[in-house]
Protein backbone atom coordinates (compact mmCIF):
# COMPACT_ATOMS: atom_id res chain seq x y z
CA UNK A 1 0.00 0.00 0.00
CA UNK A 2 3.04 2.28 0.50
CA UNK A 3 3.73 2.00 -3.23
CA UNK A 4 2.53 4.97 -5.30
CA UNK A 5 -0.48 3.99 -7.45
CA UNK A 6 -1.92 6.33 -10.06
CA UNK A 7 -5.01 6.05 -12.21
CA UNK A 8 -4.09 7.18 -15.72
CA UNK A 9 -6.67 7.40 -18.47
CA UNK A 10 -4.35 6.18 -21.22
CA UNK A 11 -3.72 2.78 -22.87
CA UNK A 12 -1.15 0.66 -21.01
CA UNK A 13 1.06 -1.95 -22.67
CA UNK A 14 4.66 -3.17 -22.67
CA UNK A 15 6.94 -0.22 -23.52
CA UNK A 16 4.00 2.16 -23.85
CA UNK A 17 4.86 5.83 -23.29
CA UNK A 18 2.32 7.49 -21.00
CA UNK A 19 2.00 11.29 -20.78
CA UNK A 20 1.47 12.87 -17.35
CA UNK A 21 -0.93 15.77 -16.83
CA UNK A 22 0.10 18.81 -14.75
CA UNK A 23 -1.71 17.59 -11.62
CA UNK A 24 -0.16 14.14 -11.65
CA UNK A 25 3.25 15.55 -12.53
CA UNK A 26 3.02 17.97 -9.60
CA UNK A 27 1.86 15.18 -7.29
CA UNK A 28 4.77 12.94 -8.30
CA UNK A 29 7.55 15.54 -8.25
CA UNK A 30 6.31 18.16 -5.80
CA UNK A 31 4.38 16.05 -3.30
CA UNK A 32 5.94 12.58 -3.54
CA UNK A 33 9.46 13.78 -4.45
CA UNK A 34 9.76 11.34 -7.35
CA UNK A 35 12.30 11.85 -10.11
CA UNK A 36 13.18 10.26 -13.47
CA UNK A 37 14.12 6.61 -13.04
CA UNK A 38 11.75 6.07 -10.09
CA UNK A 39 9.02 3.49 -10.60
CA UNK A 40 5.34 3.68 -9.70
CA UNK A 41 2.22 1.56 -10.26
CA UNK A 42 -0.39 2.74 -12.74
CA UNK A 43 -3.76 1.45 -13.94
CA UNK A 44 -6.40 2.73 -16.34
CA UNK A 45 -9.41 0.65 -15.36
CA UNK A 46 -9.04 -1.64 -18.40
CA UNK A 47 -5.50 -3.04 -18.71
CA UNK A 48 -4.71 -4.16 -15.17
CA UNK A 49 -1.88 -2.71 -13.06
CA UNK A 50 1.46 -1.82 -14.60
CA UNK A 51 4.87 -0.95 -13.22
CA UNK A 52 5.90 2.31 -14.90
CA UNK A 53 9.21 4.18 -14.87
CA UNK A 54 9.24 7.97 -14.70
CA UNK A 55 10.97 9.32 -17.82
CA UNK A 56 10.58 13.04 -17.21
CA UNK A 57 8.59 14.92 -14.60
CA UNK A 58 8.27 18.67 -14.04
CA UNK A 59 5.84 21.44 -13.18
CA UNK A 60 3.95 21.35 -16.46
CA UNK A 61 3.88 17.60 -17.04
CA UNK A 62 6.01 14.60 -17.74
CA UNK A 63 5.93 11.05 -19.06
CA UNK A 64 6.10 7.45 -17.89
CA UNK A 65 7.21 4.28 -19.64
CA UNK A 66 5.13 1.17 -18.88
CA UNK A 67 7.50 -1.66 -17.92
CA UNK A 68 5.47 -4.77 -17.13
CA UNK A 69 2.00 -5.76 -15.96
CA UNK A 70 2.04 -6.35 -12.19
CA UNK A 71 -1.64 -7.35 -11.81
CA UNK A 72 -4.32 -8.48 -14.25
CA UNK A 73 -7.42 -6.38 -14.84
CA UNK A 74 -10.00 -7.35 -12.22
CA UNK A 75 -13.53 -6.15 -12.71
CA UNK A 76 -16.12 -6.25 -9.93
CA UNK A 77 -19.40 -8.16 -10.28
CA UNK A 78 -22.23 -6.44 -12.18
CA UNK A 79 -23.56 -4.56 -9.14
CA UNK A 80 -24.78 -0.98 -9.15
CA UNK A 81 -25.34 1.21 -6.13
CA UNK A 82 -28.23 3.68 -6.30
CA UNK A 83 -28.35 6.17 -3.42
CA UNK A 84 -29.83 9.52 -2.44
CA UNK A 85 -27.07 12.05 -1.71
CA UNK A 86 -26.85 13.18 1.89
CA UNK A 87 -24.48 15.51 3.69
CA UNK A 88 -21.31 16.14 1.70
CA UNK A 89 -18.92 14.13 3.87
CA UNK A 90 -21.26 11.14 4.01
CA UNK A 91 -21.93 11.28 0.28
CA UNK A 92 -18.17 11.28 -0.38
CA UNK A 93 -17.93 8.37 2.01
CA UNK A 94 -20.62 6.34 0.23
CA UNK A 95 -18.81 6.74 -3.10
CA UNK A 96 -15.44 5.83 -1.59
CA UNK A 97 -16.87 2.73 0.12
CA UNK A 98 -18.85 1.63 -2.94
CA UNK A 99 -15.65 1.78 -5.02
CA UNK A 100 -13.71 -0.15 -2.36
CA UNK A 101 -16.40 -2.79 -2.03
CA UNK A 102 -16.69 -3.48 -5.71
CA UNK A 103 -19.71 -1.63 -7.04
CA UNK A 104 -19.43 -1.43 -10.83
CA UNK A 105 -21.54 1.73 -11.15
CA UNK A 106 -22.68 4.41 -8.70
CA UNK A 107 -25.91 6.30 -9.38
CA UNK A 108 -26.99 9.26 -7.22
CA UNK A 109 -30.75 9.81 -7.36
CA UNK A 110 -33.22 12.41 -6.13
CA UNK A 111 -36.01 10.92 -4.03
CA UNK A 112 -39.03 12.61 -2.48
CA UNK A 113 -37.11 13.08 0.79
CA UNK A 114 -33.62 13.63 -0.61
CA UNK A 115 -31.78 16.17 1.54
CA UNK A 116 -29.43 17.42 -1.17
CA UNK A 117 -30.56 18.92 -4.46
CA UNK A 118 -27.24 18.85 -6.30
CA UNK A 119 -23.92 17.01 -6.34
CA UNK A 120 -20.48 17.65 -7.81
CA UNK A 121 -20.29 14.62 -10.10
CA UNK A 122 -16.65 15.34 -10.97
CA UNK A 123 -15.65 15.47 -7.32
CA UNK A 124 -17.45 12.22 -6.56
CA UNK A 125 -15.82 10.57 -9.58
CA UNK A 126 -12.44 11.73 -8.25
CA UNK A 127 -13.26 10.06 -4.91
CA UNK A 128 -13.96 6.79 -6.73
CA UNK A 129 -10.60 7.08 -8.53
CA UNK A 130 -8.76 7.80 -5.28
CA UNK A 131 -10.43 4.85 -3.57
CA UNK A 132 -9.24 2.56 -6.38
CA UNK A 133 -5.72 4.05 -6.17
CA UNK A 134 -5.64 3.54 -2.39
CA UNK A 135 -7.06 0.06 -2.26
CA UNK A 136 -5.13 -1.68 -4.99
CA UNK A 137 -8.08 -1.94 -7.34
CA UNK A 138 -7.72 -1.93 -11.11
CA UNK A 139 -11.32 -0.88 -11.81
CA UNK A 140 -12.96 2.50 -11.25
CA UNK A 141 -16.77 2.61 -11.07
CA UNK A 142 -18.50 5.30 -13.08
CA UNK A 143 -20.36 7.85 -10.94
CA UNK A 144 -23.51 9.02 -12.70
CA UNK A 145 -25.13 12.44 -12.64
CA UNK A 146 -27.91 13.16 -10.19
CA UNK A 147 -31.27 12.12 -11.66
CA UNK A 148 -34.77 11.62 -10.27
CA UNK A 149 -35.38 8.06 -9.06
CA UNK A 150 -38.69 8.06 -10.93
CA UNK A 151 -36.94 8.73 -14.24
CA UNK A 152 -34.37 6.03 -13.54
CA UNK A 153 -37.19 3.55 -12.86
CA UNK A 154 -39.10 4.66 -15.98
CA UNK A 155 -36.22 3.49 -18.17
CA UNK A 156 -35.20 0.51 -16.04
CA UNK A 157 -34.24 -2.77 -17.72
CA UNK A 158 -36.06 -5.42 -15.71
CA UNK A 159 -33.22 -7.88 -16.37
CA UNK A 160 -31.35 -6.08 -13.60
CA UNK A 161 -32.90 -6.76 -10.24
CA UNK A 162 -33.04 -4.10 -7.51
CA UNK A 163 -32.25 -4.88 -3.89
CA UNK A 164 -34.31 -2.27 -2.08
CA UNK A 165 -33.12 -1.47 1.44
CA UNK A 166 -36.21 -0.42 3.36
CA UNK A 167 -35.64 0.75 6.93
CA UNK A 168 -39.31 0.07 7.62
CA UNK A 169 -38.61 -3.67 7.23
CA UNK A 170 -36.88 -4.81 10.43
CA UNK A 171 -34.73 -7.76 9.33
CA UNK A 172 -34.10 -10.46 8.48
CA UNK A 173 -31.25 -9.68 6.12
CA UNK A 174 -31.02 -13.42 5.39
CA UNK A 175 -33.57 -12.91 2.63
CA UNK A 176 -30.51 -12.56 0.38
CA UNK A 177 -29.89 -16.30 0.77
CA UNK A 178 -32.56 -17.21 -1.78
CA UNK A 179 -31.72 -14.60 -4.41
CA UNK A 180 -30.55 -15.45 -7.92
CA UNK A 181 -27.18 -14.34 -9.28
CA UNK A 182 -27.00 -11.92 -12.18
CA UNK A 183 -27.02 -8.14 -12.60
CA UNK A 184 -28.26 -6.30 -9.52
CA UNK A 185 -28.56 -2.78 -8.17
CA UNK A 186 -28.68 -1.91 -4.48
CA UNK A 187 -31.07 0.96 -3.68
CA UNK A 188 -30.43 2.97 -0.51
CA UNK A 189 -32.82 5.70 0.63
CA UNK A 190 -32.14 9.14 2.09
CA UNK A 191 -31.99 10.01 5.79
CA UNK A 192 -35.64 10.96 5.51
CA UNK A 193 -36.65 7.51 4.35
CA UNK A 194 -39.05 6.62 1.53
CA UNK A 195 -42.29 8.40 0.69
CA UNK A 196 -45.53 6.45 0.50
CA UNK A 197 -45.69 6.84 -3.29
CA UNK A 198 -42.12 5.59 -3.63
CA UNK A 199 -42.97 2.61 -1.42
CA UNK A 200 -46.01 1.89 -3.57
CA UNK A 201 -44.11 2.10 -6.85
CA UNK A 202 -41.10 0.06 -5.70
CA UNK A 203 -43.35 -2.64 -4.25
CA UNK A 204 -45.20 -2.88 -7.58
CA UNK A 205 -42.11 -3.73 -9.68
CA UNK A 206 -41.43 -7.46 -9.86
CA UNK A 207 -37.70 -6.80 -10.39
CA UNK A 208 -37.50 -5.19 -6.94
CA UNK A 209 -36.67 -7.24 -3.85
CA UNK A 210 -37.26 -5.52 -0.52
CA UNK A 211 -34.77 -6.24 2.23
CA UNK A 212 -34.36 -5.11 5.82
CA UNK A 213 -31.05 -4.32 7.48
CA UNK A 214 -31.75 -5.26 11.06
CA UNK A 215 -33.69 -3.85 13.99
CA UNK A 216 -31.58 -0.70 14.40
CA UNK A 217 -32.09 2.26 12.08
CA UNK A 218 -28.91 2.66 10.02
CA UNK A 219 -27.67 5.91 8.56
CA UNK A 220 -27.74 5.91 4.76
CA UNK A 221 -23.96 5.56 4.51
CA UNK A 222 -23.92 2.65 6.95
CA UNK A 223 -26.78 0.97 5.10
CA UNK A 224 -24.89 1.27 1.81
CA UNK A 225 -21.76 -0.46 3.11
CA UNK A 226 -23.79 -3.11 4.96
CA UNK A 227 -25.91 -3.94 1.90
CA UNK A 228 -22.85 -4.09 -0.37
CA UNK A 229 -21.16 -6.49 2.07
CA UNK A 230 -24.18 -8.79 2.27
CA UNK A 231 -24.60 -8.82 -1.51
CA UNK A 232 -20.91 -9.48 -2.18
CA UNK A 233 -20.82 -12.32 0.33
CA UNK A 234 -24.00 -13.94 -1.02
CA UNK A 235 -24.04 -13.16 -4.73
CA UNK A 236 -20.77 -11.43 -5.54
CA UNK A 237 -17.07 -12.26 -5.64
CA UNK A 238 -16.34 -12.54 -1.90
CA UNK B 1 -35.58 10.91 13.56
CA UNK B 2 -36.53 14.61 13.79
CA UNK B 3 -37.52 14.02 17.42
CA UNK B 4 -34.90 15.07 19.98
CA UNK B 5 -33.33 12.00 21.64
CA UNK B 6 -30.96 12.34 24.58
CA UNK B 7 -28.88 9.76 26.40
CA UNK B 8 -29.16 10.45 30.14
CA UNK B 9 -27.22 8.43 32.67
CA UNK B 10 -30.00 8.35 35.25
CA UNK B 11 -32.71 5.82 36.17
CA UNK B 12 -35.90 6.20 34.09
CA UNK B 13 -39.36 5.24 35.33
CA UNK B 14 -42.94 6.54 35.35
CA UNK B 15 -42.97 10.00 36.97
CA UNK B 16 -39.20 9.92 37.57
CA UNK B 17 -37.56 13.34 37.86
CA UNK B 18 -34.38 13.51 35.78
CA UNK B 19 -31.76 16.23 36.36
CA UNK B 20 -30.10 17.83 33.30
CA UNK B 21 -26.39 18.63 33.25
CA UNK B 22 -25.15 22.03 31.97
CA UNK B 23 -24.24 20.65 28.51
CA UNK B 24 -27.60 18.99 27.92
CA UNK B 25 -29.47 21.98 29.34
CA UNK B 26 -27.57 24.29 26.98
CA UNK B 27 -28.22 21.95 24.06
CA UNK B 28 -31.95 21.85 24.77
CA UNK B 29 -32.51 25.54 25.49
CA UNK B 30 -29.73 27.28 23.59
CA UNK B 31 -29.35 25.03 20.54
CA UNK B 32 -32.72 23.32 20.14
CA UNK B 33 -34.82 26.20 21.56
CA UNK B 34 -36.79 23.94 23.87
CA UNK B 35 -38.65 25.31 26.87
CA UNK B 36 -40.56 23.94 29.85
CA UNK B 37 -43.52 21.83 28.73
CA UNK B 38 -41.79 20.59 25.56
CA UNK B 39 -41.31 16.85 25.30
CA UNK B 40 -38.23 14.91 24.20
CA UNK B 41 -37.17 11.26 24.08
CA UNK B 42 -34.56 10.01 26.56
CA UNK B 43 -32.82 6.68 27.21
CA UNK B 44 -30.15 5.52 29.63
CA UNK B 45 -29.01 2.29 28.01
CA UNK B 46 -30.94 0.14 30.50
CA UNK B 47 -34.60 1.20 30.77
CA UNK B 48 -35.64 1.60 27.13
CA UNK B 49 -36.81 4.89 25.60
CA UNK B 50 -39.00 7.31 27.56
CA UNK B 51 -41.00 10.37 26.65
CA UNK B 52 -39.89 13.11 29.03
CA UNK B 53 -41.34 16.58 29.64
CA UNK B 54 -39.02 19.50 30.27
CA UNK B 55 -39.78 20.92 33.73
CA UNK B 56 -37.12 23.61 33.88
CA UNK B 57 -34.19 24.37 31.60
CA UNK B 58 -31.59 27.12 31.83
CA UNK B 59 -27.93 27.89 31.39
CA UNK B 60 -26.73 25.93 34.42
CA UNK B 61 -29.03 22.96 34.23
CA UNK B 62 -32.62 21.85 34.39
CA UNK B 63 -34.84 18.85 34.93
CA UNK B 64 -37.13 16.50 33.05
CA UNK B 65 -40.07 14.41 34.15
CA UNK B 66 -40.32 10.93 32.60
CA UNK B 67 -43.85 10.46 31.25
CA UNK B 68 -44.14 7.01 29.66
CA UNK B 69 -41.95 4.36 28.07
CA UNK B 70 -42.05 4.74 24.27
CA UNK B 71 -39.76 1.81 23.41
CA UNK B 72 -38.53 -1.23 25.35
CA UNK B 73 -34.86 -1.67 26.14
CA UNK B 74 -33.25 -3.45 23.20
CA UNK B 75 -29.77 -4.85 23.67
CA UNK B 76 -27.60 -5.94 20.73
CA UNK B 77 -26.23 -9.48 20.42
CA UNK B 78 -23.11 -10.32 22.44
CA UNK B 79 -20.67 -9.09 19.78
CA UNK B 80 -17.51 -7.11 20.48
CA UNK B 81 -15.49 -5.16 17.94
CA UNK B 82 -11.72 -5.12 18.43
CA UNK B 83 -9.88 -2.70 16.14
CA UNK B 84 -6.58 -0.87 15.79
CA UNK B 85 -7.10 2.91 15.82
CA UNK B 86 -6.29 4.68 12.56
CA UNK B 87 -6.57 8.29 11.48
CA UNK B 88 -8.82 10.31 13.77
CA UNK B 89 -11.77 10.72 11.41
CA UNK B 90 -11.77 7.03 10.46
CA UNK B 91 -11.46 5.93 14.09
CA UNK B 92 -14.45 8.10 15.00
CA UNK B 93 -16.26 6.56 12.08
CA UNK B 94 -15.54 2.99 13.19
CA UNK B 95 -16.95 3.69 16.66
CA UNK B 96 -20.04 5.40 15.23
CA UNK B 97 -20.72 2.55 12.81
CA UNK B 98 -20.08 -0.17 15.41
CA UNK B 99 -22.64 1.49 17.70
CA UNK B 100 -25.14 1.78 14.83
CA UNK B 101 -24.64 -1.81 13.75
CA UNK B 102 -25.13 -3.30 17.18
CA UNK B 103 -21.72 -4.04 18.66
CA UNK B 104 -22.11 -4.52 22.40
CA UNK B 105 -18.53 -3.50 23.24
CA UNK B 106 -15.79 -1.65 21.34
CA UNK B 107 -12.16 -2.35 22.16
CA UNK B 108 -9.33 -0.31 20.58
CA UNK B 109 -6.05 -2.25 20.57
CA UNK B 110 -2.41 -1.53 19.75
CA UNK B 111 -0.99 -3.94 17.20
CA UNK B 112 2.55 -4.21 15.82
CA UNK B 113 1.58 -1.99 12.88
CA UNK B 114 -0.93 0.30 14.59
CA UNK B 115 -0.63 3.81 13.19
CA UNK B 116 -1.90 5.63 16.25
CA UNK B 117 -0.35 5.38 19.72
CA UNK B 118 -3.10 6.99 21.73
CA UNK B 119 -6.85 7.64 21.63
CA UNK B 120 -9.26 9.92 23.44
CA UNK B 121 -11.46 7.27 25.02
CA UNK B 122 -13.92 9.89 26.33
CA UNK B 123 -14.35 11.38 22.86
CA UNK B 124 -14.89 7.96 21.30
CA UNK B 125 -17.42 7.07 24.00
CA UNK B 126 -19.25 10.31 23.21
CA UNK B 127 -19.38 9.26 19.54
CA UNK B 128 -20.99 5.96 20.56
CA UNK B 129 -23.58 7.87 22.62
CA UNK B 130 -24.32 10.24 19.74
CA UNK B 131 -24.73 7.34 17.32
CA UNK B 132 -27.29 5.75 19.65
CA UNK B 133 -29.11 9.09 20.03
CA UNK B 134 -29.20 9.55 16.25
CA UNK B 135 -30.20 6.05 15.27
CA UNK B 136 -33.02 5.35 17.70
CA UNK B 137 -31.03 2.84 19.72
CA UNK B 138 -31.60 2.29 23.43
CA UNK B 139 -28.19 0.71 24.08
CA UNK B 140 -24.77 2.38 24.12
CA UNK B 141 -21.71 0.14 23.69
CA UNK B 142 -18.84 0.70 26.10
CA UNK B 143 -15.66 1.92 24.41
CA UNK B 144 -12.60 0.50 26.14
CA UNK B 145 -9.22 2.09 26.71
CA UNK B 146 -6.42 1.45 24.26
CA UNK B 147 -4.53 -1.74 25.22
CA UNK B 148 -2.00 -3.97 23.51
CA UNK B 149 -3.62 -6.78 21.51
CA UNK B 150 -1.16 -9.25 23.09
CA UNK B 151 -2.38 -8.37 26.60
CA UNK B 152 -6.01 -8.68 25.51
CA UNK B 153 -5.28 -12.14 24.11
CA UNK B 154 -3.33 -13.16 27.24
CA UNK B 155 -6.47 -12.70 29.34
CA UNK B 156 -8.95 -13.91 26.71
CA UNK B 157 -11.86 -16.16 27.73
CA UNK B 158 -11.91 -18.84 25.05
CA UNK B 159 -15.70 -19.11 25.39
CA UNK B 160 -15.85 -15.99 23.22
CA UNK B 161 -14.79 -16.76 19.68
CA UNK B 162 -12.85 -14.23 17.59
CA UNK B 163 -13.67 -13.55 13.95
CA UNK B 164 -10.30 -12.46 12.60
CA UNK B 165 -10.47 -10.37 9.42
CA UNK B 166 -7.26 -11.08 7.55
CA UNK B 167 -6.71 -9.10 4.37
CA UNK B 168 -4.19 -11.74 3.29
CA UNK B 169 -7.09 -14.18 2.90
CA UNK B 170 -8.89 -13.30 -0.32
CA UNK B 171 -12.46 -14.44 0.29
CA UNK B 172 -14.70 -16.33 0.61
CA UNK B 173 -16.68 -14.44 3.24
CA UNK B 174 -19.20 -17.29 3.15
CA UNK B 175 -17.05 -19.03 5.76
CA UNK B 176 -19.42 -17.41 8.26
CA UNK B 177 -22.16 -19.78 7.13
CA UNK B 178 -20.83 -22.66 9.22
CA UNK B 179 -20.11 -20.71 12.40
CA UNK B 180 -21.81 -21.38 15.74
CA UNK B 181 -23.89 -18.75 17.54
CA UNK B 182 -22.74 -17.42 20.90
CA UNK B 183 -20.44 -14.66 22.13
CA UNK B 184 -18.11 -13.37 19.41
CA UNK B 185 -15.58 -10.61 18.84
CA UNK B 186 -14.68 -9.24 15.42
CA UNK B 187 -10.98 -8.38 15.09
CA UNK B 188 -9.99 -5.78 12.48
CA UNK B 189 -6.36 -4.94 11.77
CA UNK B 190 -4.64 -1.61 11.15
CA UNK B 191 -3.93 -0.08 7.73
CA UNK B 192 -0.50 -1.66 7.93
CA UNK B 193 -1.94 -5.14 8.25
CA UNK B 194 -0.83 -7.90 10.62
CA UNK B 195 2.75 -8.73 11.59
CA UNK B 196 4.06 -12.25 11.13
CA UNK B 197 4.14 -12.88 14.90
CA UNK B 198 0.54 -11.67 15.22
CA UNK B 199 -0.45 -14.01 12.35
CA UNK B 200 1.31 -16.88 14.08
CA UNK B 201 -0.29 -16.22 17.44
CA UNK B 202 -3.83 -15.66 16.11
CA UNK B 203 -3.60 -18.79 13.97
CA UNK B 204 -2.57 -20.83 17.02
CA UNK B 205 -5.67 -20.00 19.11
CA UNK B 206 -8.52 -22.45 18.55
CA UNK B 207 -11.07 -19.76 19.47
CA UNK B 208 -9.98 -17.69 16.46
CA UNK B 209 -11.66 -18.07 13.07
CA UNK B 210 -9.89 -16.42 10.15
CA UNK B 211 -12.09 -14.83 7.50
CA UNK B 212 -11.43 -12.98 4.27
CA UNK B 213 -13.39 -9.96 3.09
CA UNK B 214 -13.15 -10.36 -0.64
CA UNK B 215 -10.54 -9.87 -3.36
CA UNK B 216 -10.25 -6.08 -2.96
CA UNK B 217 -8.19 -4.65 -0.10
CA UNK B 218 -10.57 -2.83 2.24
CA UNK B 219 -9.64 0.08 4.45
CA UNK B 220 -9.88 -0.77 8.14
CA UNK B 221 -13.07 1.25 8.60
CA UNK B 222 -14.73 -0.41 5.61
CA UNK B 223 -13.67 -3.85 6.84
CA UNK B 224 -15.20 -3.15 10.25
CA UNK B 225 -18.62 -2.26 8.83
CA UNK B 226 -18.53 -5.12 6.33
CA UNK B 227 -17.62 -7.72 8.98
CA UNK B 228 -20.28 -6.40 11.38
CA UNK B 229 -22.89 -6.67 8.61
CA UNK B 230 -21.92 -10.24 7.72
CA UNK B 231 -21.91 -11.33 11.37
CA UNK B 232 -25.26 -9.68 12.14
CA UNK B 233 -26.89 -11.26 9.08
CA UNK B 234 -25.48 -14.73 9.83
CA UNK B 235 -25.25 -14.95 13.61
CA UNK B 236 -26.81 -11.78 15.01
CA UNK B 237 -30.25 -10.18 15.21
CA UNK B 238 -30.73 -9.15 11.58
TrEMBL record, chains A, B:
<comment type="similarity">
    <text>Belongs to the RNA methyltransferase RsmE family.</text>
</comment>
<dbReference type="Pfam" id="PF20260">
    <property type="entry name" value="PUA_4"/>
</dbReference>
<feature type="domain" description="Ribosomal RNA small subunit methyltransferase E methyltransferase">
    <location>
        <begin position="75"/>
        <end position="232"/>
    </location>
</feature>
<dbReference type="InterPro" id="IPR046887">
    <property type="entry name" value="RsmE_PUA-like"/>
</dbReference>
<comment type="function">
    <text>Specifically methylates the N3 position of the uracil ring of uridine 1498 (m3U1498) in 16S rRNA. Acts on the fully assembled 30S ribosomal subunit.</text>
</comment>
<keyword id="KW-0963">Cytoplasm</keyword>
<dbReference type="InterPro" id="IPR046886">
    <property type="entry name" value="RsmE_MTase_dom"/>
</dbReference>
<dbReference type="GO" id="GO:0005737">
    <property type="term" value="C:cytoplasm"/>
</dbReference>
<protein>
    <recommendedName>
        <fullName>Ribosomal RNA small subunit methyltransferase E</fullName>
        <ecNumber>2.1.1.193</ecNumber>
    </recommendedName>
</protein>
<keyword id="KW-0698">rRNA processing</keyword>
<dbReference type="Pfam" id="PF04452">
    <property type="entry name" value="Methyltrans_RNA"/>
</dbReference>
<dbReference type="InterPro" id="IPR015947">
    <property type="entry name" value="PUA-like_sf"/>
</dbReference>
<dbReference type="GO" id="GO:0070475">
    <property type="term" value="P:rRNA base methylation"/>
</dbReference>
<keyword id="KW-0949">S-adenosyl-L-methionine</keyword>
<keyword id="KW-0808">Transferase</keyword>
<dbReference type="InterPro" id="IPR029026">
    <property type="entry name" value="tRNA_m1G_MTases_N"/>
</dbReference>
<dbReference type="InterPro" id="IPR029028">
    <property type="entry name" value="Alpha/beta_knot_MTases"/>
</dbReference>
<dbReference type="GO" id="GO:0070042">
    <property type="term" value="F:rRNA (uridine-N3-)-methyltransferase activity"/>
</dbReference>
<keyword id="KW-0489">Methyltransferase</keyword>
<dbReference type="InterPro" id="IPR006700">
    <property type="entry name" value="RsmE"/>
</dbReference>
<feature type="domain" description="Ribosomal RNA small subunit methyltransferase E PUA-like">
    <location>
        <begin position="22"/>
        <end position="60"/>
    </location>
</feature>
Amino acid sequence: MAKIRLFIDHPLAQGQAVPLGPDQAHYLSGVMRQSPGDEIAVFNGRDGEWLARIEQVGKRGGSLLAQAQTAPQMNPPDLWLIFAPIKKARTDFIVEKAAEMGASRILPVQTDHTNSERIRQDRLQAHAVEAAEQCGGTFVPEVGDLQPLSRLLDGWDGQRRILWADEALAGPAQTLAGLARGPWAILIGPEGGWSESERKRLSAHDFVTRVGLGPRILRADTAAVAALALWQAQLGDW
